[in-house]
Structure formats: structure tokens, C-alpha cells
Write a structure and sequence with these properties.
Two copies of one chain form a homodimer. By secondary structure, chain A is of the alpha+beta class. The first copy, chain A, has two domains: 241 residues, 2-Layer Sandwich (Cytochrome Bc1 Complex, Chain A, domain 1); 204 residues, Cytochrome Bc1 Complex, Chain A, domain 1. In chain A, α11 crosses α14 and α11 packs across α18. β7 of chain A pairs antiparallel with β7 of chain B.
């Protein structure tokens, strides 16, 4: 049995068996535990990936559509997410709300989500129920029936969702404004949930129009992980999804792109509910699918070293050593179809200002841009990532998501599985190079959440809290 | 003869005759000199306004289309302006370039312009040539013939135009970025000339598609000022524009709108070519067509008092009294279909920083927001505006533009002519009210043009030039 042919349960045993070796969490090892994934394509264009995992008689079933909020027509923000909600209403065969009730009756769980680049519907269920579930999912792919009254009621639901998630959350409000500044022309600047004033106008016709343009087998990816073989899934998929006609109207994903960034942008948002002041810094960066070879993996490691956890440079300098911040961190978001994003944050400790922490944050970034990172930091970061990857590979749901996220933005199964190997090739020079290239202030938006109006958003930053200035 | 019935030449005499009266430049007087404007609508939907002016045997002829850059499809920025250029190519009847050559041969001049809300083609010519000109303009309204090679050559022209107007002009680059931040969702955030990377992809098909959607008599306004009667123009228009069929595909102007502004935005743009540092501040504000009754006229007067010329508050405080700025000023742009804009700027005097002038500028605005303006300031500003209005009314071209700008965004002739009267009604309380309401920092974008990278765009504002901080 080749290493590629190990089943998921053997893979886990392999992890245990290699703990005594020199490099138990090496990229090569991580690569070696890639599950035995099968792929096929139905005649109607639907792509399918199957990840066998025989440890328990359950399956995770996901259908990913190659459409997200960034594909919405202008002025119709929120329609992708709104449609995701409406997909739980009636079809020709099922009364409204019956989809989730049936899944629950069958002992399963279901949910869905919408991102800028994808909309996915997923369930976990006993393997014997898989085909019934696939038939239901195939049904709502094209047979949705929306009653006007139901659409209006559900619109109130998404409006309330925006209210609770965004309007009642000062940090989310700032994030929304920073994304608008980060992506002045690309639709990534429009919030996934939608602008309130546009959501309030969304109609049944908008939802059905979007549905017809984007929901069809030739715009969908089936991902099944669990106690099934590729052949079993293929047979079931042909009997269910295979009966759905190819959609003739699938729109090409043509998003506008941004001009080259020329100047750093800043946003001060004052909100009494904020509690503590917070500094945030976003940079646009490449994603797995837009990056030059190896750059995205180098960015993964850069941000792990710079900003992830209490051993990161940022945390050590600002919180542990200088004691000017009570928290600091960040991450690199690499899954986007058109762009990735670097996000950093810091919360001033009592007696210190946002200016203090911003200066210190910029000093840490400059330190990395000019001095690079150490081999020890790189090794530790890589090991941490590989460990996360290996442990995550133990989750049926996480595996299904891993392949789904990759395929929905155009990666192949091989691309998805090459990540540990690519990560293994990154050198300290690579990390320094991507830091120099992408932590460029011109690419950035700096946001400040200010709990008090007296923090003087109206005035230049240098008028704030002079007493604490270093 | 009623005052409304005076001809343009009599109106000018009237100005002379009333100089001795108490209020020669009163709003009532300005209103009284409104030319005797005639209006009609052709059967195909084309609206026409005629402004007789018999002083010389010439006419100004304009055709305004209710389409501008803000109506462009996403990803096709610059197509409105590109099409304006291409309108000087061939039609069924005229070879490429022949339009302007013919106008010149007839002793006339011609040009065109594109704004966010309008595209207009205009000529000045001897009255005897008017009908021939109208026939040519009617021809190119629907009979444009574009050769692929010519489109590509002209695309190089607009790209070069962008290069010289924007890329070689640091102030224009900053302006472009500030507008993007000012209008995060509305298409006013996209530059009229287009983003370079999108302009480079514009095609013949894009231009013709835009043309068919927007160029037709039912989306056009004819404005003729000069030595003609309404009946003469009507007869000529029926023989020329009247033969053009109503366009069936005219798109409704549906632009996305912005969410309520919640936080001030700041942009630092470093460019060695800048020469001097400059501070700019933009605010969104209502326009003539979006404002509550009287607000736009109060904003006209507010910005005249606050920022226009060497007697303005801003200039007096920053340049004359405090001597921290070498120049300071601003204006209110009120002609937009969906939004107006307030723009202010200040240039630090030698030895003073951008922070100094920003603090001083904010102090002047706060002074007006809380203390209002004086009756003397209001009277002086109003008189200055009325004088400009009256003197401008002496220009055939300016009159044609005045009515064209109003009508193309949906104003009526009566709306256009009521401006002096509305201006006359504004009180100091009104000015204070609009200052308080619209000079709200949350609505603003502050831009700083920095000639040196050492001005540290990467660092918070308070790290700059500490030696000069007050």
C-alpha cells in the first residue's frame, strides 16, 4: 500500500507511529497522509470529489457553488446570502422549511454559508441517508419555489442578522469600512451580508434572477467525505444530481479589479460601545490562486511568525517586552479568488495610546522587513502549521471544507494537497522577501476604533492624548 | 413688455440702467434678467430649450445626453468618455474626423465633454449654418460607424490623456483616491476618465453597447442659445432630430448609493513631484437636486463665505492672520444628480506643517459651525454670487451651459431660473444650520499630498515634523 493509498484511519495511526521519528510533523509526512481522494465529473458538468473515511458510518455532504457576494450585481449587495437563506424554503417537491426538518428527522445536521467567493450547503448524516439527501439537494438546485410573502419575511431575518452582527458590533462596523477602503473598485469592498439600504430593497425577482444565473450543476462542486467509496458516490450522484440539466445561463465570474494601491488609507471610527480602543491594519496580498509560486506559503509562515499567538514577534514585543499592548496579533487570509489579505491588530494597555502601539507595530514589521526571521522561528512556525494540518485532517468536516475551498476558487485536488510540500520549501529568505514586498504601507488601510468622541476623530492623530506620547 | 419678455440685449441694458439703484445686484434683479427661454419636446421624446440672444448672428448649439461616467457598467470605467471621443469618427454619411472639419469649414468651433452625470457636444457657429449642424449632430446620434483599428488608436489617445492629466499630476492622483474613499459604493468614486487597467481593455463592442443604451433622442436635451427664435429652432429640430427614431433600449440611470458615512477617512499620498505639501478635505453634501429646499443655496453661500477668495474666513485666518498657510480655499460642487461635494484645501507656509494647517482649518470650520456667519458676510457673498450670475448671463455659451447642466440632472427651466430668488432667501441661521449639518467630520475624507517619503506616510501623523508642532 503506497502512502497515498492509506485510508484516513491508517493515516491517523501513521501519525502515532511516527512520533518517535526525527521529524514527525514534517511537510513530507503531512503530504503523505493525504486521503485517497477520488474525483469525477457528471455529464451535466458537475464536478465531484470524494474523500473516503471509513471510521464511522457517517458522511459529510457539501455542495459548493462557484458564486459568492463578490459576484453580486451592483446595487444588490446581500443577494447571495439572502438566496442562501431562501434555499431552505419550498421546492416543487418539498414544502417550505421541510429540507432542514427532513435532515433532522433522518438524524442529520445541516447548514450553509456564504462568502465573497462561494456559497456552500452542507450536512452530516448517516451513510444510508446520503442518497436521499443528495436527491433533496439536487431538487433545490433548480426547483426552488419562492412565495412573495416568505421572501419578505426572510428579508427581515437577514436585516436582523445584519443588525446583530454588524450594527451592534463596533469592531464589525470598522472592519466593513476598512474593507471598503482596501478594495475601492473590486467587489470585495462590499460586505458579504450586504449594505442595509440595499438589503432593504432586495426582491423575490432579484433572488430568482441570481439563482438562475448561478445555481446549476455546471457551477457546482460536490464534496463528500466519510464512509463511502468513490464508486458508491458516483452512482448516487448520477441518479440524483445527474438528472439535473446543465444551466445555460451561468454567468462568468467577472469582477472589477483594483488599480495599483498608491497611498495608505486611515479610518477613525468613534463608537461609545467599543469599550477599548483598538488598532487594526489590513494589507492586500496575493492569495493561493493569485500568488507567484511559493509566495502564499511564505506569507502563511510570515504571518504565523509575525502575529500568531503569544510567541509571535508582535505579541512578544508589544505585550511581553514593551508592555504597551494588552493584546496583539493577526493573520493571513489566503483563500480568495482574486486577492488575499493580511490583518493585524493591537489593543493598547492601560496608560498607552493607539499611537504608541501603532509605532511599535510598525517597528516590528520594519524589523522583519529589513532583518528577516530566524531559521528557528521558521521551523517552529512550519511545525505548528503542519501539526494543525495533520490534526485537522482527522476531521471529516474539515477535510471536506479543505477540498471545497480549494476547488471553488479553481484549485485542483493536487494543488490542495501540495500545500504541505510547498510549505516545506519556504526559506527564511522567502519570508523576508514577501515581507518586503507585501507589508508595503501603500497597500494598507489602518483603522482605529475609538470608544470616545473625545479621542478626536476630527483632529489629526497627533492631537490625541499628548500626555502619553513617547 | 414684461421683465420676463426682455431679450438678452435689453437685459444687459437693464443691468446698466439699474446700477444707480439701491440694490443693483439683488436676487430680484438677477431673476428679472432671466432670458426669454422657450421649450418644446419632439415626438420622439427629445427635449429642447431655446435661449434667444439677438446681439450677434451666431448660435451656441449643445446636445446633452443623460449619461455620464457614473452610469458605466462595472469594470468598464472610462467608456462614457471614450465614446465621447469616438463620436468624432465616421457615421453612415460622414467619413471619420469629418464632423469637426466640417464645423471648422463652416467657420464654427466644436468640442465635447464628459462628466459623472452628463455627456455634451457643443458648437458655436453662424446662425445660417445651424440646421446643417443639427443634421450632422442628429446623424451621429444613432449612425456612428466604428472601425476596429480606429477604436484602438483612439484608446491610445485616452490612455495618453489619463497619463498626462492624472498620472503626471500628483494632485490629481490624490483627488482620485479621495473620491474613491468619499464614495465607497456610489459610482462617483470611479474616475470619469477611467481606471488605467480598465481603459486598456475597453473595446469597440463596449463603446457601441454603451452608445446603443444611452444615445437616442429620448435621452437627449437640445440647448440652443443665440440669434434664433424658438419657432425657428423647433422647425429645424423637427427636420433634423425629429427624423431620428425613439431609442427602445435607453437604460434607467440606476446608480448604487452609499451607506450612511460613519467615520472620517484619511489618505496620505507621497509623491516626489508634488513640490509642496497640500492638505485637502472633502465632504459629501446634498446637490441642487437632492437637497432639502434652500439647503443647496445655503451651502453655496456657506462655502463662498468660508473658503472663496482672499476675503474668506479660511484665507483670512490661515494666510492673513496666522500666516501658517500660503494659500487656502475651497468650493461647493452642487450640480450632481446624486450628491454634492464640499472641497477645501490649504498649503502650509514655509516652516509650518500640514498638521498646523489642519488644526487651523478645523478651528475655522468649528467657528462657523458654532458661531455662524455675520449678516455682512452673507450680504457680501450673496452680492458676489449675484454679480457673477448677472455677468455670466451675458455669455451665450454660459447661458446654454447653465440650462444644460440643470436639465440634464432633472431640473426644470423654472428650477434653473429660481436660483437667484432662492439665494435671496437664505438667512444667517440657514448658513449656520447647513454648516452644522454637512461639515460633519464623519462625512469627510482628508487627503495629504506629501512631497517627501520622509514625511512618513507609514507612520501616524504625530510623528511628522515634531519641531514645528505648536
Amino acid at each position: 500500500m503506497s502512502t497515498r493509498a492509506v485510508t484516513k484511519s491508517l493515516a491517523v495511526l501513521t501519525i502515532g507511529a511516527t512520533v518517535m521519528l526525527a521529524s514527525p510533523l514534517s511537510p513530507a509526512h503531512a503530504q503523505s497522509i493525504a486521503p485517497q481522494v477520488g474525483e469525477f465529473r457528471l455529464a451535466n458538468g458537475m464536478h465531484a470529489v470524494v474523500i473516503p473515511d471509513r471510521r464511522a458510518p457517517v458522511v459529510t455532504h457539501m455542495v459548493w457553488y462557484r458564486v459568492g457576494a463578490a459576484d453580486e450585481p451592483r446595487g444588490k449587495s446581500g443577494i447571495a446570502h439572502f438566496l442562501e437563506h431562501l434555499m431552505f424554503k419550498a421546492t416543487e417537491k418539498l414544502p417550505s422549511g421541510e429540507f432542514s426538518k427532513t435532515v433532522a428527522r433522518l438524524g442529520g445536521q445541516d447548514n450553509a454559508f456564504t462568502s465573497q467567493d462561494a456559497t456552500a450547503y452542507h450536512q452530516q448524516i448517516a451513510k444510508e441517508r446520503l442518497e436521499q439527501l443528495m436527491a433533496m439537494e439536487a431538487d433545490r438546485m433548480v426547483n426552488l419555489r419562492l412565495a412573495e410573502a416568505e421572501v419578505l419575511t426572510e428579508r427581515d431575518v437577514i436585516i436582523e442578522e445584519r443588525r446583530s452582527r454588524i450594527e451592534n458590533n463596533p469592531g464589525s462596523i470598522l472592519d466593513e469600512q476598512m474593507n471598503q477602503a482596501l478594495y475601492p473598485n473590486h467587489t470585495y469592498g462590499v460586505p458579504v451580508i450586504g449594505f442595509m439600504h440595499e438589503m432593504a430593497q432586495l426582491s423575490r425577482a432579484d433572488a430568482l434572477g441570481f439563482y438562475k444565473q448561478h445555481y446549476a450543476p455546471n457551477n457546482a462542486i460536490l464534496v463528500v467525505s466519510g464512509d463511502v467509496t468513490v464508486d458508491e458516490v458516483k452512482a448516487m450522484a448520477e441518479r440524483t444530481y445527474g438528472t439535473v440539466a446543465t444551466g445555460p445561463q451561468i454567468a462568468v465570474r467577472a469582477r472589477p479589479s483594483d488599480p495599483p494601491p498608491l497611498a495608505p488609507r486611515r479610518i477613525d471610527y468613534v463608537d461609545a460601545r467599543a469599550g477599548k480602543p483598538v488598532l487594526r491594519r489590513y494589507y492586500t496580498a496575493p492569495s493561493y490562486v493569485t500568488a507567484a509560486k511559493g509566495e502564499a506559503e511564505a506569507l502563511d509562515l510570515l504571518l504565523k511568525i509575525a502575529s500568531s499567538g503569544s510567541t509571535s514577534r508582535l505579541y512578544r514585543r508589544l505585550v511581553v517586552e514593551q508592555k504597551i499592548a494588552s493584546n496583539a496579533g493577526g493573520y493571513y487570509q489566503a483563500s480568495g479568488l482574486d486577492s488575499g489579505k493580511i490583518a493585524l491588530y493591537a489593543v493598547p494597555a492601560d496608560g498607552h495610546t493607539l499611537d504608541d502601539v501603532e509605532r511599535a507595530l510598525d517597528a516590528v514589521l520594519e524589523e522583519i522587513r529589513t532583518g528577516g526571521v530566524t531559521q528557528a522561528e521558521l521551523d517552529r512556525a512550519r511545525k505548528s502549521y503542519i501539526a494543525d494540518y495533520v490534526y485537522e485532517s482527522d476531521s471529516q468536516v474539515a477535510l471536506a471544507r479543505r477540498y471545497g475551498w480549494g476547488l471553488v476558487v479553481g484549485q485542483t485536488v493536487a494543488d490542495v494537497e501540495s500545500w504541505p510540500t510547498n510549505l516545506g520549501k519556504v526559506t527564511t529568505a522567502d519570508v523576508k522577501a514577501v515581507a518586503g514586498r507585501w507589508l508595503d504601507i501603500k497597500r494598507s488601510v489602518t483603522g482605529r476604533l475609538l470608544p470616545e468622541a473625545s479621542a478626536a476623530a476630527a483632529k489629526p492623530a497627533n492631537q490625541q492624548a499628548p500626555a502619553n506620547r513617547s
